[in-house]
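Reopening this one. Same input as before:
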Amino acid sequence: MSDAEKTPLLRSKTDDEEEDEELTGCGATLACNPRRFLHRYLILIIMCFLSFGSYFCYDNPAALQDTMIKDLNLSESSFMGFYSWYSWPNVILCFFGGFLIDKVFGVRLGAIIFSLFVTGGQVLFALGAFVNKVWLMDLARFIFGIGGESLAVAQNTYAVKWFQGRELNMVFGLQLSFSRVGSTVNMNVMQPLYQLIADHGMTGYKCLGITLFIGGIICILSLLCAFALGFFDKRTDRILHRKATASDEVIRITDVKDFPLAFWLMCVICVAYYVAVFPFIGLGLVFFEMKWNLSPSAANTVNSLVYIISAVASPLFGFLIDRSGKNVFWIILGTVATIGCHALLAFTFLNPFVAMICMGLAYSILASALWPLVAQVIQESQLGTAYGIMQAIQNLGLAVISIAAGSIVDSSGYLILEVFFLVWLCIALVAAVLLYLSDASKGGKLNMSAKQRKIEKEKEEEKKNVIN
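Same output, byte for byte:
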């Protein structure tokens, strides 16, 4: 890692640094001058597209579920293996992605390396389909997974470096929205693309391989964004004498012994809720085709509604929960609403658009309320370990449940699969209620309103001033 990425980002200027590099020509314009707001927002656009390709290709299997199973002669459990193999490396790598960026590669080189893993994994995945080698496709998804989650860490590191102290919350919300847009575009583009190639005489697994190769072009565009960000970030460091700072969120496994019950309940909620959403989307295409007789295109549209809704709703609910507080209440509400959505899909023939729109809203509520709570129960020096453990448990759950969900469809069908997901959501609900009761017994800090938290914070500051 270069020396330019080892020293603090924010510091006061010395007399020697008052004379920043003078820019001329195009470099001095609003768009190219790193001292001007327009340049930062143009960089933000590139930043949002950094992981666009990763999210676009992550759900390629879900968008092509029926054709992939037919062309490759797969069982549902083998099909869901493509998601499981993505998750396995992230059971471990979520602990080390931040470390690799902070201490080994630096954010610029790290983003490029992880983008190469994503692009290489997608190309290999397409090649495996083209030559009808499922084992090669599994290996490709493993490689893709190595880069995917760590690339998101690099994206967040860039966001902090460029926008800390300014519009950071808005930037994180916008990045999340773009990631969901990538998933949505995939759901609505890949089936028509497959059909277009099939109409030109290519059939079977070779048609599938070509479709995945073309989809992989998006990964190449994201790789180009990684190179562009590296160039502009290095240029800005030179012009503004800006230095990068390493994250304070150091991974220390020994910290686990100090984590309270509330944290472990949050982990249970996280894994039990997410395994009822993402594996369902992975298997949803054929479900909607079979139960409601939808065309592949219409089924993909329904299946993508969770992503479409969350792209818009996540920043809005984040803002609302910031203002209202009551995080545990929102977690319970999101879980109950998702239980209702799965019940509608399992036991009624009501238009699936209704249930999937509600699920998108419920998912946005839960995600916006759950993840910030960790910082309320874990001290700042241990946050890296806490989030690493939470993500590891989530990825472990997704890896195992993806295979289990595919096996259930093979052996028992989609109705039993929905009951399986409802059981997991009930576990999440029980954990959320236990979190509420545990917190209430200790003063109800997690479920305070925003006004109550402000008063509590002022009291804590007064106590510190008195002690000092």
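So the earlier flakiness isn't reproducible anymore. For the record, The chain has a mean pLDDT of 85.
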